[in-house]
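Onboarding guide, step 5: your first structure request.
Type a short instruction followed by the sequence, for example:

Predict the 3D structure of this protein.
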Amino acid sequence: MLIVISAVMAYHGWLISASGHTLLELQFVCAGKGAEILGNWSKYYAGDRVLLDVARLNTKIEFLFIVVYVLQLITLSNALMQRERSVFINELLRMNLMLAVLLGLLDVSENIIQLHNFHFPSATMMYISTLYLSIVKWVLAAWILVVLVTSRFKRFF
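The system replies with structure tokens like these:
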């Protein structure tokens, strides 16, 4: 399921990247630049759809993606936790369970803000930047992955 959703989202991302901007870039820009990107997407077409509509659809699909990847992270952390002998790594994996849920909540919050921004494509005053939320989300995601990789491959270190 994760692979299928990822493929659909990657296709949407490929369509949107024809405008010179990506959905990932939109997460890390200030209000002025974000409104400019959305304004451009409201002018460019992918087939018979405006790129802004493609981005909106991609963001809605991402809600399902969030549920799936959070469940995957929880399942993987739990499976590694059952086999982990080191108390310290085991506690980090236990913390990953909570952090995965927090990561999902941050991603949902970011998507809700982006959907709000899609309603006002060129209005800089109405645009809410997701810059700081995205930074926290990606740092948290990196931490979770470091813990998972460390637990899985620690015997090689």
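Each response can be followed by summary notes, for example: Residues 51-83 form the longest helix (33 residues).
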